[in-house]
Amino acid sequence: MRITVATKSATRQRILEAAKGLLLADGWNHTTTRGIAIAAGIATGTLFNYFPTKEAIAAALIADALEGAAKEFREGTPENSLEADLFTLVWSGLRKLSDYRKFLGQALDSVFSPLARSSPESAGEALRVDHLELVESTISAHGYPGPRSPVTVQLYWTLYLGIFAFWAADDSPGQEDTLALLDRSLKLFVASLSIGQEGTNERR
Amino acid sequence: MNVGELLAALPEDDSSSSSATAWEQEKLQEIFADLANRPAPTGSLHRLWTISELSSEIALAYLNFWVRGWFSDAEASQRRLAETNLRVALKLFHRLGYLRGAMAKLGQTLGNLPGIVPNDVSDTLDRLHFDAPPMHFPLVREVVRNEFGKGVEELFREFDTVPFAAASLGQVHRARLKSGERVAVKIQYPGIARTINADFRNLAALLFPMRLGKNWDYTKAQFEEIRRMLNQEVDYEQEAESTRAARKLFRPEDGIVVPEVYAEYSGKRVLTTEFLEGVHLDGYLATNPVQSSRNDFGTRLYTACNRMVYAFMPYVDPHPGNYLFLSDGRLGLLDFGCVQHYGAEEREIMLLADRLAFDDPSLIPVVVQKVCGVSPGDSEFPAYVQMMTESREWAAAPFYSRGPFDFGDERYFRAGVENVVGMMRKRMTGAHPMYVYWNRGFYGVLSMLLRLRAQVNAHEIIRRERAAAGLG
Predict the structure, then answer these.
(1) pLDDT values of chain A reduced to their tens digit, one per residue, 204 residues
(2) What pairs with residue B183 in β-bridges?
(3) Degrees (nearest 5) of the Cα angle B289, B290, B294?
(4) Number of H helices, E strands in chain A
(5) Cα(B287)–Cα(B290) distance, integer angstroms
(6) What pLDDT score does A99 carry?
(7) Rounded Cα–Cα distance for residues B234 and B259 (Å)
(8) What is the CATH number of domain B133-191+234-275?
(9) Helices A5-26 and A54-75: angle between axes, nearest 10 degrees
(10) pLDDT by residue (tens digit) across B1-14?
(11) Which residues pair with B218 in a beta bridge?
């Protein structure tokens, strides 16, 4: 029997919905791939055809949310400073992920582990590459000449993950502490872009 | 005269003071001199770096102490701990913009930074202000969403994405309500307000074990007063209350206007008020106004200040940015974050001082006891009585002058400054904590009137305001 693209997509979606429900109810540590398969009404073996690990499922959930934010960002009106644009991009991603905030801290550790990055197929790597590409095009659009050095890219990614981790555990009202951290981190990052590039200014 | 020169002129400690006290005074003066001479950090990048440096600097300072402690005896080690504490505290002052301002206030009460010299006055008052990084619009939008659960677009018909003024820990944007009214929306930088108590705890832990100076208990009480007022200043709900209360005090014929608060668009971190069109003091002075216009504005300013005092809610932030000169001649009062609300104890003291100033000079010994905490049996009592006599004479002079009083006469302001400097030189720093802000308000208004070069019938205004309050 041939499985149509539509069926495949629907099954994938069912797995993600089931995973989301279990992760929210039971947390990261108490959710298993077997449990997810049962909740999705499929055999565990079938689940592995879609996602090899629990981390891959979490990565897909995160990726879907971030993709939605990235799409909105691309379609939105650009802000008049790079800081403001990057702020919009990152914060809208966090807003899309707000349902997952409780388990995101632990999931991030697995999905975005620096060690996992050594494998190009790792679930987090695709997310990283997509996000950094969008960041790069945003930076260029604001008139900062490329290419970015690996140190600059790593600085951004470190700040980005730090903000994620901070936000996941931020109990301040409306996560206002994350707002401040994000703002200050981006100021730091944007300032670092200008180091050694005198005469390069923001193009509005 | 700048602050450094003042400091150089200050120490006149009695010869009986122990070497430890001399050492403390010297260190403290060094610290406050340094504090006064360093400009507040302005660039956002600079602020950012200073924040990240903070913890490492504290760690280094303590490491330094720890290592040196291996080689010193106990007594010296105590001294170094105190020194280390002071240095760390100093770094904290420098790092936390808003606290720097608070500490400058404390420095004044400690008798090290009078800071009220005419040429310096506006600068000093400027520095006694909160400091927060500017916010771009996407951040502003999120703060608004946090407050109301709605976006800026849903709440307002128009919203200017570029702020037009800085405010306590935030900034102010022009906007228009859906119903058409023009408003000013004050937005607070996220997260900073909640750090005030923690920052003060840290500073208290560093400073309090030292008991610097003979009036240390007063200093502690004043420190607490500053912490309380700073918390009040960042609470926009409290500010909305104070604004509404102040608005009720003025009638159309006063020519003094307090903007209306729009409660539906206001919360803890966002405050929306009626937008007043006008210019600040510098803009007004740039039009080279005629003397009668200066006098009219001076009269309004002096009336506003007295009206609020007699309502037991003095306006203690007479910063030029908080006054608006409207083209129709009215005076606008903005920003009611820094308003004292007197309870029973403060009211009693205020009324006593009021009677002393305007009714009964024989109350001087009573006021010295009540306000300065010095009893007739104390050796310094006669000196305090003398100081209070001179202060009273100076402060009440506008009331006792016949006809309009010339607040533009710099000699008057200078005499007041010399009074304060004299007190500081004699280390007469005992005062009820309410006076930390009272003095700021009092000298602030005088410096505004000085810059306006206004001639005001102070006698008539005070008589009228006191009568309305059932006094005199």
Answers:
(1) 567 888 888 999 999 999 999 988 888 889 999 999 999 999 999 999 999 888 888 888 888 888 899 999 999 998 889 999 999 999 999 999 988 887 777 777 667 766 555 455 566 777 888 899 999 999 999 999 878 888 888 889 888 888 888 888 888 888 998 998 899 889 888 988 876 554 444 443
(2) B175, B274
(3) 75
(4) 9, 0
(5) 9
(6) 84
(7) 19
(8) 3.30.200.20
(9) 100
(10) 333 333 333 333 33
(11) none
ipTM surpasses cut 0.85: no
Spatial CA neighbour of B310 closest among B276, B367, B357, B369: B357
Q: Which amino acid is at B59?
A: A
A-chain CB neighbours of B131 within 8 Å are none
Residue B189 has φ and ψ, to the nearest 5°, of: -60, 135
CA distances from B203 to A151, B94, B196, B199 (A): 37, 12, 11, 6
Tens-place pLDDT, residues B133-146: 789 999 999 999 99
Whether A87 and B136 lie within 8 Å, measured CB to CB: yes
| Alpha-carbon gap, residue B74 to A76, rounded angstroms | 66
pTM of the model: 0.76
**Range(s) of chain B covered by CATH 3.30.200.20:** 133-191+234-275
Q: What mean pLDDT do residues B214-219 have?
A: 64
Distances (CA, A) of B459 to B294, B305, B402, B439: 18, 14, 8, 21
Residue B192: what residue type?
A: I
pLDDT tens digits for range B340-352: 999 999 999 999 9
Residues of A with CB under 8 A from a CB of B: 79, 81, 83-84, 87-88, 91, 172-174, 176-177, 179-180, 183-184, 187-188, 191
Q: How far apart are CA B295 and CA B368, in angstroms?
A: 35
